[in-house]
Amino acid sequence: MPIPGFQTHPIIYLGGFVIPIVNGFADSLTGFKQSDVDVNESMNVYPGQPHCKHDQGHSIWHEVSANGLLDLVYMCDYMNMLVKKYFNK
Q1: Which terminus of the chain has fewer Cβ atoms in its 10 Å neighbourhood, N or C?
Q2: Contact between 16 and 50 (Cβ < 8 Å)
Q3: Vertex 32, ends 71 and 88: CA angle to 5°?
Q4: Exposure string over 27-36, b if 16+ CB within 10 A, otherwise e
Q5: How far apart are CA 58 and CA 30, in angstroms?
Q6: CB-CB contact of 11 with 21 (8 Å)
Q7: How do residues 9-39 score in pLDDT, each as one tens digit?
Q8: Distance between CA 65 and CA 8 in Å, rounded?
Q9: Which residue range is the domain that position 44 belongs to?
Q10: What is the pTM of this model?
């Protein structure tokens, strides 16, 4: 069920604009630092970004979900470290 007004140009533009803010907030919560500054700042992440990012929401979804997937990998690595540290004695 679509949310009325959610896929309008101003909302898509706003979504593209707040990606670095959301990334910074998420990093402050998890403590996992992204190794690529461009990904955190949402710059030069994929070809066509200057046009696509503010024109339609699909590319924003891909960019944010890819960053979330990397955070999931960081979390798995952290959990692996904890398991080795506390359960492999």
Answers
A1: N
A2: no
A3: 90
A4: beeeebebee
A5: 26
A6: no
A7: 899 899 999 999 998 898 899 888 888 888 8
A8: 21
A9: 9-87
A10: 0.77
Which tens digits make up the pLDDT trace of 49-83? 888 888 888 889 898 998 889 889 999 999 999 99
Nearest one of 3, 44, 43, 1 to 19, comparing CA atoms: 43
Task: Give a yes or no: residue 23 inside a domain.
Answer: yes
| Residue 26 maps to a domain | yes
Residue 11 CA to its chain's centroid (Å):
18
Look at residue 2 and tell me if it is in a domain. no
CA–CA distance, 29 with 6 (Å, rounded to integer): 27
